[in-house]
Specification:
Elements lengths: L1 H9 L1 H9 L7 H13 L2 H16 L4 E10 L11 E2 L6 H6 L8 H6 L1 E10 L7 H22 L6 H5 L13 E5 L5 E2 L13 H11 L6 H4 L4 H19 L5 E6 L2 E7 L5 H17 L4 E10 L18 E10 L4 E10 L7 E4 L3 E3 L8 H7 L4 H13 L11
Antiparallel strand pairs: 1-2, 1-3, 3-4, 4-5, 6-7, 6-8, 8-9, 9-10, 10-11, 10-12
Helix pairs in contact: 12-13
């Protein structure tokens, strides 16, 4: 907590330096007044000012630690608690042991994750995590300095943007612990950024040699609709599948038909996939993405081969396919699929890829976290899909029963 208080008091240095140099800044009073007015209307900036004064006069913030727990066992929201004082629980395992018995059903125990979030809050800003608030304050100061340089026609150092707090800090993984609902053991994941390097001429030659002319992205360059963008990526995925015999899972976040982030989406279990899709939606919110594509290999089952669980991986006569599922903030969604035929059972060699099948009906439960984030969840379509699964004999556990 001491480091947080030091950060709050030190932040005042920025405004002190600005005001002490106002004689050298043209139209300073008019320019600075606009920022002060904006800060006065910002509850977090107002809190930071009052917190700084409180620390200087009283020497401490009235902060305390809180915890909140939620069961993640599907793409829909699961049962959760409110924020509670951390002192009520001795350990994360104590929270896990306190989960009501009505939630300890087979599906949750096998595929569920208990997310336990922790946050520090100040009594005068009870709904916002202190680190999140400080990141906002720092971002405001960065924007102010950038504006000052811009209005004076000066170059903005690239380091200024690079020093902004990583927005990935908003993800639960940075302030939480994940426990398996099965045994209370620690599980979970972390995201790490990796810059995409521009291919060299040598790299391009290797690509051409391995994939032939088909490695070209000409179709993507001419794409004018979301569907055309997705079809271009699926075309490339089919080429990779035939040549490499495998296609890892990826999530593509798009804005205005352009891919802005590519995320490796391989996951060891169904439970981890439920957790990942929630965080992918959060990343989409942070990046202001308006569309998402999920691309990778999948198991398939048709007709009478569909198991009671509804999961193709459990089917006795399951098949393989490469699949692209896509959705956008308008609520539009579709799926592209190509069945994979191997040389023989147990072989990795691909004998053939089936024709591209397009599906626009049904409901993509995978993207429920995205639809909720975008405010375009079609609950009627979702309920129709539940009814269809009931007719097929597929079991759909209800996690939020009172």
């Amino acid at each position: 907590m001491l480091a947080l208080q030091n950060c709050i008091t030190t932040s005042r240095t920025v405004t002190f330096i600005l005001q002490s140099n106002k004689a050298d800044i043209p139209n300073f009073e008019t320019w600075y007044a606009g920022h002060v007015t904006r800060w006065a209307a910002d509850p977090v900036m107002k809190w930071a000012k009052e917190a700084r004064n409180s620390i200087e006069k009283q020497g401490d913030l009235k902060g305390h630690s809180q915890v909140r727990a939620e069961i993640i066992a599907g793409y829909l929201s699961g049962p959760e608690t409110k924020w509670m004082p951390q002192l009520l629980f001795r350990s994360p395992q104590a929270i896990w042991r306190s989960v009501p018995r009505k939630f300890q059903i087979p599906h949750i125990l096998e595929n569920g994750t208990l997310l336990i979030e922790r946050r520090w809050v100040d009594s005068n800003l009870p709904e916002t995590e202190v680190l999140e608030a400080l990141a906002h304050v720092y971002g405001e100061f960065c924007s102010t300095i950038q504006d000052l340089l811009a209005v004076n026609k000066l170059t903005v150092p690239p380091e200024l943007d690079r020093t902004r707090p990583d927005p990935m800090g908003e993800l639960a993984m940075n302030r939480a612990i994940y426990l398996s609902m099965a045994d209370g053991s620690i599980t979970g994941h972390r995201f790490f950024r990796k810059p995409v390097e521009t291919p060299t001429e040598a790299d391009k030659k290797k690509l051409a040699k391995r994939y032939g002319r088909e490695h070209s992205w000409e179709r993507l360059r001419s794409a004018r609709t979301f569907r055309e963008v997705a079809e271009a990526y699926f075309e490339r995925a089919r080429v990779l599948m035939r040549r490499d015999r495998i296609h890892y899972s990826f999530v593509f976040l798009l804005r205005d038909l352009r891919v802005i982030q590519i995320i490796r989406a391989d996951h060891p279990s169904r439970a981890s996939r439920y957790v990942l899709m929630r965080d992918f939606a959060r990343l989409a919110h942070i990046a202001k993405a308006d569309a998402v594509i999920y691309l990778g290999e999948t198991w398939t089952a048709h007709g009478d081969d569909v198991p009671a669980s509804g999961f193709a991986v459990d089917a006795k006569n399951r098949g393989e396919a490469i699949m692209l599922t896509a959705a956008n903030s308008k609520g539009e969604h579709f799926q592209l699929t190509s069945e994979i035929t191997r040389q023989h059972p147990g072989s990795s060699k691909v004998r053939a890829l089936g024709p591209v099948e397009v599906e626009t009906e049904g409901f993509p439960f995978l993207f429920v976290p995205f639809f909720q984030m975008w405010g375009c969840l079609d609950e009627e379509a979702m309920m129709r899909s539940f009814d269809q699964m009931d007719e097929m004999g597929i079991q759909t556990p209800v996690l939020n029963e009172e």
